[in-house]
Amino acid sequence: MADRGSAGLSLIELIVVIMILGILVVIAVPRYLNLQQEARQAARDGLTGNLRAAAGIAYADASINGSGIINAASVYSNLADSGGLTLSGTVFTATIGGVQYTWTFTLPAGIGSAFPTT
After folding, report:
1. In-domain check, residue 35
2. Residue spans of beta strands (DSSP E) within 12-98
3. pTM over 0.85
4. ∠ CA 37-25-35 to the nearest 5 degrees?
5. What is the number of domains present in the chain?
């Protein structure tokens, strides 16, 4: 039998390398996809919090300054950073990672669109 030296990999070595790569792919791809989903959810939750804060500022502004108007436009104007949100009527829309999310502006029960001015 002749000495091969280090001319290359044997068939068994190649099969082992391919199996190891396959195992890594099976483990890594679902984990990567899950991270993308979690990132989209975090971005959505961040925009929801941003809208809630802007609504609180609009409510405080209307009640303190007596402007009396709380609507989707006043909430949108109080956003420090729109974060990709757009407003159409009473519907806020954002696209995160190719998925479109919508939030509809509605006043809480007991709050009208205008405050009485004194």
Report:
1. yes
2. 86-88, 91-96
3. no
4. 15
5. 1
